[in-house]
Amino acid sequence: MKTVRLTAAQAIVRFLVAQRTIVDGREAPLFPGVFAIFGHGNVTGLGNALEEARDVLPTYRGQNEQGMALAATAFAKATRRRQIMVATSSIGPGATNMVTAAAAAHADRLPLLLLAGDTFQSRIPDPVLQQLERFEAPSVTVNDAFRPVTRYWDRIVRPEQVVQSLPLAVETMLDPADCGPAFIGLPQDVQTEAYDFPERLFEPRVHELRRPRPDRRQLAAAAEALRGARRPLVVAGGGVHYSLAEQELAGFAEAHGLPVVETVAGKSSLVAAHPCYSGPIGVLGCPQANRLAAEADVVLAIGTRLQDFTTGSWTVFGEDARIVALNVARFDATKHLAQPLVADAREGLRELDELLRGWSAGPAWIERARQEAEDLERFVAEATRPGPDGELPSYAQVVGAVNRLSGEHDYALTASGGFPGELNANWLAKGVATFDCEYGYSCMGYEIAGAWGARMARSDGEVIAFLGDGSYLMLNSDLLSSVVSGHKLIVILCDNGGYAVIERLQVGQGGAPFNNMFSGIGPHAVEVDWVAHARSLGCEAEAVTTVAELEEAFGRARRADRTTVIALKTAPQVWTDSGAFWEVGVPEVTPRPEVAAARERLLAGKRGQRVGW
Fold first, then answer.
1. Which pLDDT score is estimated for 521?
2. Taking 60 as the threshold, does the pLDDT of residue 613 lie above it?
3. Which residues, including other chains, have CB under 8 Å from residue 211's CB and lie 6 or more apart?
4. How many Å apart are CA 423 and CA 415, to the nearest integer?
5. What is the rounded distance in angstroms from the CA atom of residue 598 to the CA atom of residue 477?
6. Contact by Cβ (8 Å): 255, 360
7. pTM surpassing 0.90?
8. Does the domain formed by 3-207 have CATH 3.40.50.1860?
9. At a CB cut-off of 8 Å and minimum separation 6, what does 571 contact?
10. Cα–Cα distance for residue pair 552/542, rounded to 1 Å
11. Which Gene3D superfamilies has this protein been placed in (predicted)?
């Protein structure tokens, strides 16, 4: 057996370089780059190895470990899980900063490789800088915090373990059912220790998407359920994107006259102009899609885990509705007593289409869906229409303005706060797979870092990040990263005076306004100069006050050669309402009559919940 003597860190880097994938029919690196912040725990070992390979594996310096790992997560979403970025940190706070990003990738079923420095395996120098000592468990380090938020976790304690561990990590991240982040801890001494590695470990390997086909009995049962439906509905989830099944979904819906509603992760599975598109479903959706869901008797849920915002805490579907869950993950396909169809979304749709040849939904249901689609157009037009002069724009009006000026290749991105609801309801997708709302983990701070990662993945169109003032203040340093690395973004920053959407929830459930808006958290009011701040990080920036000014500024941002931030004040109390129920905890004992009334509303809403199917 031929071998080559390398350090553990050099072997890891050489292995990553050798992994290949297929993107749009062409071979490409599976790992096209590494986000890195170096410290004493990784700079002398892994850092040296990355420097040696800088021509074939680019390294990008982030400003915050959480931000760079979020950028890697968004990169994976934008490539539809075809490529994976690496994020590496030192030990201690650098590592734990990445735990939040790992949780986001885990919730969103996205691949992310995390390599963190660790304490010395020999323990001779202990306790080392940034080591958190567990008196009763000396082998535990802060890197054990990654165990619950990763799909694969390992600590390399001998160099030769790279041979076994790295391939397993890759297979886990590429598994369509178990996809998620992988973590590998790298003790500082082990990173630099050498071993005679087999050369075949570093031979190029091309990875292609595995597509499990459906069980024939499950397939026949799903077809029978749909054939017996009088009001069938399709719910398109993120799995449609990851399977590259958008074309099959469109053809399936057209052939069988099926209205298609989308989850947050599944948005832009169909373009908004598609005749079968019926809007977004759930708490962040629109009344039209939710009305169809309430009337449907059979629901084909494709590639969705049916979280509470999709199902309105399990109130949007009718009492007698039957769910057929087409999902590559058995765990998701069998939730809530659904009828499972465990398969890749694309292959499952193709085979289901064959069994349903000649069958279509009835004309009355097709007409019903068409009417709701027309009403959706009116609903969005009304929500996004600019208001009178002198009135603060709403989030919806901001979304509408940018949407009108966007093209089919432009990519809209947001995360927690008020924008997920406003974009999901009011953004009319002009291109397939052009939308990313991180709402599986609802991670504030994802927006700018995520846009940076998405920009790396996309060569066409603009990447447009929508965020509020709260998220901007939480994590904005990757504006600098985008400028330094030459990855231009357009950032729409809406200042509504604090965490306005959470205050809406607080007050809507009977609570008193408390600790959410900037005007109420301290004795000194501060007007943040967003433009000056963004410019200090190297961006172009300007403030606008009206929708008309926003549209003009957006045109200038398109022509700019670097990241541009457009800031404007927006109305804190104007929101698009989906009409769906959402269960939150409301106190059972309270001195406030408003809370008591909210509790009664909660109990009334819960009476519409489906416990089993």
1. 80
2. no
3. 176, 243, 344, 346, 347
4. 10
5. 39
6. yes
7. yes
8. no
9. 391, 392, 393, 394, 395, 496
10. 11
11. 3.40.50.970, TPP-binding domain
* Three-state secondary-structure class, residue 438: coil
pLDDT digit string (tens) for 8-44?
999 999 999 999 999 999 999 999 999 999 999 999 9
Nearest-Å Rg of the Cα atoms of the chain is 25
333 close to 340: Cβ distance less than 8 angstroms: yes
Average of per-residue pLDDT across 335-362: 96
| Residue 116, number of CB atoms within 10 A of its CB | 29
Which CATH number applies to 385-569: 3.40.50.10190, 3.30.70.3340, 3.40.50.970, 3.30.420.10?
3.40.50.970
In this prediction, residue 235 carries a pLDDT of 98
Sequence-ordered strand ranges (E) for 515-584: 540-543, 564-569
From the list 197, 235, 429, the residue with the least C-alpha distance to 317 is 235
Q: Express each pLDDT in 548-573 by its tens digit.
A: 999 999 999 999 999 999 999 999 99
On the question of a common fold for 3-207 and 216-370, the answer reads yes
Q: Which residues contact 483 (CB under 8 A, 6 or more apart)?
A: 537, 538, 539, 562, 563
Give the residue-averaged pLDDT of 148-167.
98
Q: Report CA-CA distances (Å) from 268 to 22, 427, 433, 460, 473.
A: 23, 9, 5, 16, 29
**What gap in Å lies between CA 167 and CA 288, rounded to an integer?**
47
Query: How far apart are the C-alpha atoms of 605 and 613, rounded to whole Å?
Result: 18
Which of helix, strand or coil describes residue 395?
helix
Contact 139, 170 (CB under 8 A): no
What pLDDT, on the 0 to 100 scale, is given for residue 523? 86
Residue 366 tokens, joined: 């097709």
Beta strands in 459-530 (DSSP E): 463-468, 490-495
Tokens of 113: 């490789």
Q: Hey, what are 107's tokens?
A: 């919730």
Helix axes 216-227, 345-355, angle to 10 degrees: 60
Mean pLDDT score, 518-538: 91
Residue 15: per-residue pLDDT: 98
Report the percent of the chain where pLDDT is more than 90. 96
The domain spans of the chain are: 3-207, 216-370, 385-569
For 369-380, the three-class secondary structure string (H helix, E strand, C coil) is: HHHHHHHHHHHH
**The CATH homologous superfamily of the domain defined by 216-370:** TPP-binding domain (3.40.50.1220)
What is d(CA 214, CA 236) in angstroms, rounded to the nearest whole number? Answer: 18
* Interstrand relation of 3-7 and 194-198 (parallel, antiparallel or unpaired): antiparallel
Question: Residue 161's Cα: distance from chain center in Å?
Answer: 32
| C-alpha of 264 from chain center | 9
23-to-79, 178, 535 alpha-carbon distances in Å: 8, 21, 36
Residue 70: name the closest of 440, 410, 329, 452 by CA. 452
